[in-house]
Amino acid sequence: MSLDALFDPRSVAVVGASADPAKWGYWLASGALAGRSRRQVHLVNQRGGSLDGVPFLPDLAALPAVAEHVVVAVPPRQVRPVVVAGLAAGARCFTVITSGGADPAEERELAALVTAHGGRLLGPNCMGVVDTTTELRLSWGDFPAGSVGLVSQSGNLALEIGRLLGRAGQGFSRFVSLGNQRDIDAADALECLVAHDATRVLAAYVEDFRDGRRLARTLAAARAAGKPVLLLTLGRSAASGRAAASHTGALVSARAVVEAVCRDAGAVLLDSAGELVDTAVLLAASRPESGRAGRPLGAGRVAVVGDSGGQGALAADALVARGLDVPVLEPGTRAAVEAHLRGRTGGCANPVDLAGAGEADLHSYARVARALLDGGDTDATLLTGYFGDYATANPGQAAQECEVARELGEAARASGRLLVVHTMARDTPALAELRRQGVPVYERVEQAATALAHLARPERTAAGPPPALPGRPSGPPLTDGGYETVRALLSSHGLGFPAAAFVTTADEAADAARRRTGYPLVLKAMGLAHKTEAGGVALGIADEPALRAAFARMRAATGAGRFAVEAMAVHPQAVELIAGVRHDPAFGPVAMVGLGGVTAELHADTALALAPLTPPRARALLLSLRHAPLLTGWRGAPPVDLEAAAEALCALTRAAAGHPELAELEVNPLLVHPGGALALDAHGVLT
Asked: Does residue 99 sit in the same domain as residue 187?
């Protein structure tokens, strides 16, 4: 259902309007009245009164015309009657500010009532909605206009982001406070921002991802539309507090899942409001055109120019520490820079040191910056140091400094590349002019470096929208997650295992060794999640007496009633991996692969992606591991069969995606070697 009535209604009614500036109803009403040149505004308060000459009506039934969008700021017990009255009067959208009083079931019933009548509900427990392009301000606080669209589950965080944006010369195109997300959720709001021409950068603070796969599709769609997405969420400080029924459960945290989703969708996951604003300001200033060399515009290679050798060197260090490149300039670019320094002793290799050229002639800043931008050696240029502060010491230089600021902006636009300014100045006319020209300005060089790093990162990592899940289960639900059951499931999906038999007595074990597996073999006790730690695995059993002795010891140690007799798999140059799938409440099945065996958690070298996997995606995950050189041929060793390893991951993820009753499904170890891939153990955890 459309959200046009949310962002640009023909008419608005504020129920709970007030003339008291200390109350929410005042800010909602005064904000609504600010847009009355564009739409009809009705104010409702059963006690009467007025604001700015507009009388308060007693109820929605008294309105002279239908209110398309109704803002509800009344005590909790009055919310439902107001919504019912609004629906009866023909309202299409409700923004419910009220918090407290209603339990989740009542809130869901309220949302169902609205949607059943073809309407939409924002909230409850939200801070409202703002669209600066349609003069809609239905919220508390000030929201500067700009090109950043924000979706947030925290109202105060939105206010902080707004103030920081305002100080940086940016602001909001739209702001949506999600509240409890009983109807309109983060994906709904972000989809509208993707389609909104005035929104250049999407930002979101989300605590509850609801339908995570839909949100992931929205993030990927935003990237495809050229709209970068910046995301804040929780979970850096803990692994979400779940019990680890498997290695997979211990290695796949909620935060790690979100990181993987953002990586594949091309969104940028951030850690603070300040970092979000710094990156948003840069993204809003960036242009989607290609550079002159035909490469997509990014920020991976940066030229640094400053009027202080120390600041230039520190800026270069900050950039390199964040994974960016500060390359030596090509001879042609160096010559162009040197021509503008007029024989001064400044360095020209990168960083470029103006060495007093700026003090002698302010226009040197623009000329050198233009040479770097036009040179094509780099994707972005960082100007660091004193520029913007000359007029503070000498007011007579104000006009000239502003003129140079305009020249800097023109140089950036003409080159199609990024210019970023770090300065020790604050709130000077030249800085205001730079911002008007679309040049991002930062007070600390680490802010500029971090923002440039975030701009460059999605260019290297985006993999596309999330994979589709099967429409129905791939077979009857599993009734247990033991090795025998899980092995049969995974084998049916094409995953290879050593020859094996399942037995209950020592005689049966000896017979299985003679008829099926041969020696050496492995004996495993069934029914244990971590067999090795519990004494439930015996390796390299060479003959029948050793088998019978191991069987007796294992039965006494574990109390198991059923055992697997399995051929011993030994492959030279093999690497042990762990591969698993965990069902995330928001995102569904999540695939994990990493260095495996009993030290899986010690290494913690893992890569995640939403399941099921395709062979190219599985191969990319394997190669993204820190220890990937072990797979591709470390120190002269032959490479493992990456295609077989990738197909093994695909088989595992297909099986898990087709069995939603499995909370976790794991193979550990998955033995990959130059000749193929073989699963040596597996188990599942039922929901």
From this structure: no
